[in-house]
Amino acid sequence: MNKIKLLTFSVIALIILNIAMLGFFIFSENKSEDFRKKPKPREIIIRKLGFDKQQAKAYQELINWHRLNIDSLQEQIKNTKQNLYSELVKPEVDNKTKDSLVNKLANIQKEIESTHFKHFQDIKKLCKKEQLGRFSDLTTELAKIFSKPKPRND
Q1: Is residue 60 part of a domain?
Q2: Region 108-137: what's the mean pLDDT?
Q3: If you ran DSSP here, which 8-state letter would residue 36 be given?
Q4: How far apart are CA 126 and CA 56, in angstroms?
Q5: Same domain, 54 and 129
Q6: Which of 25, 2, 69, 48 has the alpha carbon at shortest distance from 141?
Q7: Where are the transmembrane segments (predicted)?
Q8: Domains in the chain, number
Q9: Which of 17, 38, 85, 127 could hold 131 in an S-S bridge, CB 3.0 to 4.6 Å?
């Protein structure tokens, strides 16, 4: 009988331990996801510059304009790359066409960078006099804020 009681007690203890571990993993995973979430650039900029509601609304309009322009330019890049790589299926690559398409890609990328720069000039215009110092501090962080997250090696 002692062996049966010991076995029963061990099985019950293992079941309780498994339930506790499952609960821990379920609840701790949700918390760790919250810590892993990177705040959106919009939220970072509003917080760092201390925008009020009116400034935040105007900033959202700037974001909409910016996104619309960048999306259009990204589409142009996609189409131009498609044309460039379609040159590879030809028996002989026409260097003039290839160079023309590569130059077009460079010009579109230049336009993207100019659009980004104008976007930040417009954000600066939204700042009140007392926020300009914070804007200057923010400019040193812009590349980090807008960098894409590194892929996880799971």
Answers
A1: yes
A2: 93
A3: H
A4: 9
A5: yes
A6: 48
A7: 6-27
A8: 2
A9: 127
